[in-house]
Amino acid sequence: MSFKDRFEAGVAKFNLRAKSDPQIQEALRQYAGRSVTLKVTDDTVYVFYLEKDGIRLEVSPENAPEDMYLETSKEILQRMIDEKKLNPADLLLGRIKWRNIGLKEVSIVRKIMGV
Length: 115
Hints:
Elements: H1 3-18, H2 22-31, E1 35-40, E2 45-51, E3 54-59, E4 68-72, H3 74-83, H4 88-92, E5 97-99, H5 103-113
Parallel strand pairs: 1-4
Antiparallel strand pairs: 1-2, 2-3, 4-5
């Protein structure tokens, strides 16, 4: 399954859960108007727009926002998805670059990506 297909399915699943989960609804209200840009260096750019009623995915936009920003390779991203966790060594060794994301936001990003 391609990343695009996986992310589209994950966004649909997340949006469905958001309709009935008060914690997700609160997080969406808190982060409405923000975005998470995931640049996969040897693939494409995925932008997840956080809105009050769910998440919207855009693939390969002309101008990707850098609000909350992650950058990594296909190999690292695939490993993150397969293992369902972030490897601290990838962060420490610069295999995952991130800006404007704190530990609180990491859990939201992980839910969005299905990690």
